[in-house]
Amino acid sequence: MYVSFSVPRSNTLFGSFTATVMLWVTTSSGVTGLPLTFAYEVLPAYEVGQTAFDLGQISTDRFASPNGRYFGSCSGAEQTTMTNNTDSDFSFATTWAQVSTAQNDGVNYITPSGQYILTASFQNEFNIGSAGVDSGSTGQLTLHWTVRYVGDEAQEPDTSTLPTGKYTAHVAPRFQEYDGSYDHILHEIPLTVTFEIVAGTAQPGGAGESGGAGESGGTAELCGLTISPSALDFGTLARDESVSPRTVTITNTGTERLDVTVLFNMYGLGSTSDSLEPGTSMTVQVAPNTEFESVGSHEDSLYITTRQDGGEYILPVRYTITEGSRLEIRSGALEFGSMAAGDTLPGAQTVRVYNTGDLTVDLIQPVSQYFTVEARLGLAGVRAGSFRDLTVAPRADLAPGTYQEDITVRTEDGAAAVFTACVTVTGTPGATFTDVSPGDWYYSFVETVAEKKLFAGNGDGTFAPENNMTYAEFLAVLFQFSGDILPTVSGGNWYDGHVAWAEQSGLIPSAMLDGFDPEAAITRQDMAALFGAFLTRYPYSAAPVNTGTPSFADGGSIADYAKDGVTLCWQLGIFGGNDDGTFAPGSTAIRAEVAVTMVQMARVMGR
């Protein structure tokens, strides 16, 4: 036997019902009617435990500016339940609604009129983007709300003058029903939210519960939390500059557990949350991403909220992005043509260096091996959008050959631009030393040190460029830059006076003096140590060529007494590392290599 009946369906007809159906049975005595009664219940698609929320009183202090420039906001959370009576699952991934006085469409509006805005959203079990409430189950919902004052944000905040009174907001957060098809059914939950704004006591620019402002330091308090620092100021940053993160520490100084959420609207952080027991802390690393920010002043915010009481602190994060230092050279290569050795130099040419950044910069004196480079009006104070002219000419002591060189112009903070200069020198002038030829790579350096009377040959007309340089020979050459008078000492060695001079001047580190042998081949690290000690005692005029500290692959094997000297030699361009990235501190140096370093030393000393 099969019995059927129809149940009325209506979106507004819910509750318990009964239905009576007559079952007609035919027997030998006739037709008999048997009444059958059925009880049933019609449920709505969903049921929300609470649709009216009273947020209580909100002090105008809650809207105080965290930085003295705009009005803040206050937030909180209310809990309720939802029962899903459908065969589908509900999702609360994007359920939010905004209410303002500008809207009055019967759903989203706030009364009486006032300059406040309310944003409300549902989340399931505190998880953003959770699956929501499954079919046939009951889930815990949290209504997150924020009330913000949207008056004249350009004025200095004075929370005592904000509108007060009782307000009613009508809002309908949305959720999606997944019915198994590609069509997601959208539902709205009509809610009524009431709150009362009461006058606070904060002064203009002061801080209420939203906390006070400060620079990169200070401490703020929020509903049982201590936040340090209370503000971050990164100052001026260049575009693409790598910024070290700053740490914000949030400590639960109360007596109850607090669920803390931190939301940051800058690149790279997003949101994070933690549950803090009394006396425990959480930290957040904050750093602007200079790659994506535009040039100009920025002020972002770190939003710190507690779930228990809805308190919120807005921590300001300030910084300014600049283009930094940028140089540009728009001319092509400088071609000086040919010149005969010893002839009059060709006329100097001009290179114009443009400052295309947005900061005033100081240029570093360019270093050139084959050309002289001089600046008109000096190298300091090149304004943004301006330029500086450099005059370039071949050096007078060039041996026959073709010289092409890339010359780099740098700023103090590392910006650089490169130009190329080229000249050909003809003729075959006589060499100073019989074992040094114009075709040798070190020819011009050996000629230069001979011309400046820094090096002496061997008395037989040779220079011995491939021989190792001894400590005595190196000290003798270094002495030439001192301008001192060689002390008179008793001894039979030609170098005794130079060694005594170095010892009396404090140039030889104590670690080097132990077992010191003037006739031994000098090592690269000991050359650097002696150069460094000399340059800390005698004035020099050259600006650094490199900034910072070098990073050699074998830097860990450099002796402690030589490290400062190695760094100074690298910074001033006297000599640096090898092509393979090493410094080779224990390697010896031949006389030709030392000639190269002494030419650079002459430049540093202004000789």
Summarize the structure in words.
- There is one protein chain.
- A hairpin with a 5-residue loop joins β19 (258-264) and β20.
- The strands form eight sheets. Strands 3-5-10-9-7 form a five-stranded antiparallel beta sheet, with no helix packed on it. A five-stranded mixed beta sheet has the order 17-23-22-19-20, with no helix packed on it.
- Residues 101-108, 125-130 and 202-215 have low confidence and may be disordered.
- The chain has helices at 443-451, 471-479, 496-504, 510-513, 524-535, 560-572, 591-605; strands at 15-27, 30-42, 46-48, 52-59, 73-84, 89-91, 96-100, 109-111, 116-124, 138-149, 165-171, 174-178, 184-188, 191-198, 220-222, 225-228, 232-238, 246-252, 258-264, 270-276, 281-286, 296-306, 312-322, 327-329, 334-340, 349-355, 363-364, 371-375, 387-394, 401-411, 416-426.
- It has seven helices and 31 strands.
- The radius of gyration is 41 Å and the shape is elongated.
- It is mostly beta strands and 607 residues long.
- α2 crosses α3 (496-504), α2 (471-479) packs parallel to α5 (524-535) and α5 (524-535) crosses α6.
- Helix content is 12%, strand content 37%.
- The protein folds into five domains: 1-42, no CATH class; 46-198, Immunoglobulin-like; 220-322, Immunoglobulin-like (Sandwich); 327-426, Immunoglobulins (Immunoglobulin-like); 444-605, no CATH class.
